[in-house]
């Protein structure tokens, strides 16, 4: 597995994917991500942010739907399923963010 990451990093360095003037924040080390790793980190971060916003909106919508069911069993079931799936979605997104950050830190360690 380590050889695969080293190969990917060496390809990125050989192709020189650094974009002048663009630096991506690295919250762990106070420095910056640059080049291919920075672009990948930024794209994944934006996708996870959008997915998180959608999951939160879906959960809020399901909560409002639950509050306004007026005892209708079909709507109650629909709202509870929405709350469950929204909660699972938020948990998966948080776990995905953790996994992406761990992989990025590992890739940066190999790159140096």
Low-confidence stretches: 13-24
* Coarse shape: rod-shaped
Number of domains: 1
What is the subunit organization of this protein? single chain
| Termini separation | 17 Å
Portion of residues within helices: over 70%
Largest sheet: 2 strands, antiparallel
| Structural class by secondary-structure content | mainly alpha
Count the DSSP helices. 3
Number of strands: 2
Query: From the alpha-carbon coordinates, what is the Rg to the nearest angstrom?
Result: 20 Å
Q: Mean pLDDT, nearest integer? A: 76
Please give the order of strands in the largest beta sheet.
Answer: 1-2
How is this structure best summarized?
By secondary structure, the chain is mostly helical. Helix content is 77%, strand content 4%.
Characterization of the model:
The protein is mainly alpha-helical. It has one domain. Helices cover 77% and strands 4% of the residues. Helix 2 (35-67) packs antiparallel against helix 3.
Descriptive keywords:
single chain, 112 residues
Topology of helices and strands:
Layout: H1 2-15, E1 24-25, E2 32-33, H2 35-67, H3 73-111
Antiparallel strand pairs: 1-2
